[in-house]
Specification:
There is one protein chain. By secondary structure, this protein is α/β, with parallel strands linked by helices. The chain folds into two domains: 247 residues, Type I PLP-dependent aspartate aminotransferase-like (Major domain) (Aspartate Aminotransferase, domain 2, 3-Layer(aba) Sandwich), CATH 3.40.640; 126 residues, Aspartate Aminotransferase, domain 1, CATH 3.90.1150. It contains 13 helices and 15 strands. Helix 6 links the parallel strand 4 and strand 5. Helix 3 packs across helix 7. It binds pyridoxal-5'-phosphate. Pyridoxal-5'-phosphate (PLP) binds next to helix 3 and helix 4. The site of pyridoxal-5'-phosphate (PLP) has 14 residues, from helix 3 and helix 4.
Length: 395
């Protein structure tokens, strides 16, 4: 099976991990700070806070934004469940904004309309989480303008998007947002096994995030509420968690960062190869917004279902049966049983549901060879034409 994504680990990565294992610190040592500095410098952000996963990052980013019971969080329905669950962890109410039919990211016009209605009803969100699907940034300047007008905090879920850019600013620069979250799960652009990070240019948010990732405990006398009793003193001043990353993981992350531009460039080469070889097929290729340079975490095609004999499920199943590890990113979150119990239903976000009925993620990762990619392309073409009732070239 050719997977849809996988990590690329080289000897330098392995050596970096081994070096930590032989050192004095295997957690919260110098590698954490090195990794944070590397990513912050790369992205052009002031502060970076490394945590155990992007899910943990989203949770404490929401808490740092002050999200709590009675508040509202909005995100895209076409995302991994973690982008929405973080609101529920904080006791907030979660709602969704339908997607743009071309980029599959949160629609700015749908967001604006929903904000106007929410303002009239007194139900404005405290936090909005735009998700950069497949690694292509949302239209952040417009979202930032709305954030200023309607007074919400913007947390970018850039789990797919490290290495990408928007208007020549690296995603993670937080030029148009309050915080940006990355994931370092093995299928993502760079990996630490499990891991996540929050970037921000706001020193108060950075301080809160550091507290929340480690039990809400400080050893800094300037942060303490009371005079320290002695040199052993620490104070718990917030209800935090153990969301720390180990030095072992951070060393891997810092080592992976040396290849990030290479990783993204190879993904673009492979994506362009798919574009060329699938151009005459009855599929919609990934639209690239002129303001964005995607990190190309995912290569998502949409079937022109009216022009293909097999239906979406049949094409998908046949590809899996042929050893092609296609995937579907994502089942719209509002249709998950847990969210249906909160009152959401099919029909709530039609653009997201239409996308779901046609989308297929093809394998795309750094070590995908041209020969493997050709196998994928042949299999896709075979499935699109199978049944011999291909209705002719797409317009
Ligand atoms: C992977 C992913 C997450 C969660 O990342 P973890 O590091 O696995 O917790 C959140 N949001 C999106 C969009 C993701 O793709």
């Amino acid at each position: 099976m050719i997977p849809y994504g996988r990590q690329s680990i080289n000897e330098a990565d392995i050596q970096a991990v081994v070096d930590v294992l032989r050192s004095d610190f295997i957690t919260q040592g110098p590698a954490i700070e090195r990794f944070e500095k590397t990513v912050a410098n790369y992205c052009g952000a002031q502060y970076a806070v490394t945590v155990s996963s992007a899910t943990a990052a989203l949770h404490i980013a929401c808490l740092a934004a002050g999200l709590g019971p009675g508040d509202r969080l909005w995100t895209s329905p076409v995302t991994f469940v973690a982008s929405a669950n973080c609101g529920l962890y904080c006791g907030a109410t979660v709602d969704f904004v339908d997607i743009d039919p071309h980029t599959y990211n949160m629609s700015v016009s749908a967001l604006e309309q929903k904000l106007q209605m929410a303002k009239a009803n007194g139900t404005l969100p405290k936090v909005v989480i735009p998700v950069h699907l497949a690694g292509q940034s949302c239209e952040m300047e417009a979202i930032q303008r709305l954030a200023k007008e309607y007074g919400f905090t913007v947390i970018e879920d850039a789990s797919h998007a490290i290495g990408g850019s928007y208007r020549n600013q690296k995603t993670g620069s937080c030029q148009f947002s309050d915080m940006t979250v990355f994931s370092f799960h093995p299928v993502k652009i760079i990996t630490t096994g499990e891991g996540g990070m929050i970037l921000t240019n706001n020193p108060e948010l950075a301080e809160k995030l550091r507290l929340l990732r480690s039990h809400g405990i400080t050893r800094d006398p300037s942060q303490m509420e009371n005079e320290p009793d002695g040199p052993w003193a620490y104070e718990q001043i917030a209800l935090g968690f153990n969301y720390r990353m180990t030095d072992i993981q951070a060393a891997l992350g810092a080592s992976q960062m040396r290849r990030i531009d290479d990783f993204v460039q190879r993904r673009h080469e492979r994506a362009e190869r798919y574009n060329r070889k699938l151009a005459d097929q009855p599929v919609i290729l990934p639209f690239q917004h002129p303001d964005c340079h995607s990190a190309f975490h995912l290569y998502i095609i949409r079937l022109k279902t009216g022009e293909v004999r097999l239906n979406h499920k049949q094409v998908f199943t046949a590809l899996r049966d042929a050893g092609i590890g296609v995937n579907l990113h994502y089942i719209p979150v509002h249709t998950q049983p847990y969210y249906r119990k909160l009152g959401f239903k099919t029909g709530d976000f039609p653009a997201a549901e239409a996308y779901y009925s046609e989308a297929i993620s093809l394998p795309l990762f750094y070590d995908l060879s041209e020969a493997e990619q050709d196998n994928v392309i042949s299999a896709v073409k075979a499935m699109l034409w199978s049944g011999k009732i291909f209705l002719g070239p797409s317009s």
